[in-house]
Write a structure and sequence with these properties.
Blueprint (H helix, E strand, L loop, with lengths): L2 H29 L7 E2 L2 E3 L5 E3 L17 H16 L1 E2 L4 E2 L7 E2 L1 H16 L5 H17 L2 E2 L3 E2 L3 E2 L18 E2 L1 H17 L4 H9 L7 E2 L2 E8 L2 E6 L5 H11 L14 E6 L2 E6 L3 H4 L4 E2 L2 H10 L3 H21 L7 E3 L6 E4 L2 E2 L2 E2 L2 E2 L11 E3 H11 L2 H10 L12 E3 L5 E2 L4 H16 L12
Helix pairs in contact: 2-3, 2-13, 3-4, 3-5, 3-13, 5-7, 9-10, 9-11, 11-12, 11-13
Length: about 450
């Protein structure tokens, strides 16, 4: 055998060995979670032959009855609406994501539309203003340019409707699209379809011009990122967010059978004595960070009403935060939030990237200095549970108000400074929480049995 042949044969053997090693590492990360102090919520078969999570469900979670709002609560709702009086662009019909910055995302536009519906139902605004704003917003959704002619871009200028990057710089090509953000937008669009039939043809026209071919495959959600001339199509969504947006897609007939499954990627981590549900897909292998935090569970509860699994998972996410207060004396309501200082946006988690109470940017940077007590998190949990602890949270944030821009986002945990940024998402969700208190979930029929 010649030297060249020997080298080629060795290369072939090395390639096989490396392939086996890589496969083994993947299997290790997916099955042995001890390196992250996680354990699988192993699927079992119940007595009826159905696959279920091996999770001991809480016998009864808090479920306060629907009721009229107090005058103090109505005043808080009116304050939240102030944000949308000040940061509204009548030429396009859209609200700014952050006070003073003329850009928005589909996620934030969803928060605006749900805030608008809430303000109308709570009689904060009159019929004429509601319909004028709704018609302008739907007109904007019909006119926005689409990334690659397919789906809405990740961000838009609220003055011109042009595509932008996240720094609000114009972008002719766009920066891609997010299945999670589109799924969030479909929540208010579904509400409009059900509750405001005069707009049904308009909504159908809007969503019918979008091309969903690449966003769904085998029941899995995909998003696109376009940067420096390179496009990447990646699986999108992690535990909590993935199941939440899947519900809005399901209402429109899309196949979300894998994305909606709680059985595939769930692990449990003990935090403050509570076994918290976490996503076990390592970011190193799957290309996305994992966050166990409040927001998707709060939104699932107030917009859809909990299902069997999300009711349990939400309560555990909440309870870990309450127990942190019991154990350490730190009022805790963590979720994704804008910040008043660099890095300006962070995911404050109960558990993220293998760490308890991690504070993570979308690029993976971490610092405990970014942890905040979230205003929308406090009011969200209180609307769902109304416990003594959530009442303390609300008491803490009740004065975080401005005359023109609604509520501030919260407090920094390390020194108690106000997180002095006013956002569409904070104030929109606050309005949603008060809608929920009075009327229940946006997309659930209230029958004789209640929730």
């Amino acid at each position: 055998m010649s030297l060249k042949q020997q080298i080629m044969e060795m290369r072939s053997q090395i390639a096989v060995i490396l392939g086996l090693i890589t496969t083994g590492l993947i299997i290790f990360f997916l099955t042995d979670l001890s390196h992250l102090q996680e354990r699988r919520a192993i699927a079992d078969i119940d007595g009826k032959g159905q696959t279920v999570l091996a999770v001991e469900f809480t016998e009864k979670t808090p479920n306060p009855p629907l009721r009229d709002l107090t005058e103090a609560e109505m005043q808080m709702a009116r304050i939240a609406w102030k944000y949308f009086e000040t940061n509204y662009n009548p030429e396009t019909g859209l609200a700014d994501s952050v006070a003073g910055f003329h850009f928005t995302t589909l996620w934030d536009t969803a928060s605006y539309l749900l805030g608008l519906i809430s303000a109308h139902r709570l009689e904060i605004i009159e019929d004429d203003e509601f319909h004028t704003r709704m018609e302008k917003a739907l007109d904007a959704m019909e006119r926005i340019p689409l990334y690659n002619g397919e789906l809405p871009n990740k961000a838009y200028d609220t003055k011109s409707l042009s595509m932008t990057d996240y720094q609000n710089k114009p972008s002719e090509t766009g920066t891609g699209w997010s299945a999670i953000d589109i799924g969030r937008l479909f929540v208010p669009l579904n509400v409009i379809l059900y509750e405001y039939s005069e707009y049904t043809p308009w909504v159908r026209k809007i969503i019918s011009r979008w091309d969903y071919t690449r966003m769904f495959k085998d029941g899995v959600l995909y998003g696109v990122t376009y940067k420096n001339g390179v496009e990447q199509l990646n699986q999108e969504g992690r535990l909590g967010y993935e199941e939440y947006v899947s519900k809005s897609f399901a209402l429109l007939g899309f196949d979300i059978s894998s994305a909606y499954s709680y059985l595939d990627h769930t692990g449990l981590v003990e935090i403050e004595g509570v076994e918290v549900p976490v996503d076990v897909r390592p970011s190193a292998l799957f290309g996305a960070h994992t966050y166990a935090l409040s927001e998707p569970y709060i939104l699932d509860g107030i917009e859809f009403g909990f299902d069997h699994y999300s009711r349990e998972f939400a309560y555990r996410i909440y309870l870990a935060q309450e127990m942190r207060y019991e154990n350490e004396g730190i009022l805790t309501a963590v979720t994704e939030t804008a910040l008043s200082e660099d890095p300006y946006f962070v995911y404050n988690t109960v558990y993220g990237e293998g760490k308890k109470w991690a504070c993570i940017t979308s690029e993976g940077m971490q610092s405990p200095d970014w942890r905040t007590l979230s205003t929308k998190g406090a009011l969200g949990w209180h609307s769902l549970y109304e416990t003594e602890y959530t009442a303390e949270l609300v008491d803490k944030i009740s004065d975080l108000t401005t005359e023109e821009n609604g509520f501030y986002a919260g407090f920094y945990e390390d020194d108690g400074r106000v997180n002095s940024v006013n956002t569409c998402n904070t104030n929109g969700i606050i309005l949603e929480t008060f809608y929920y208190k009075k009327f229940g979930p946006f997309l659930r029929i209230q029958g004789k049995g209640g929730l």
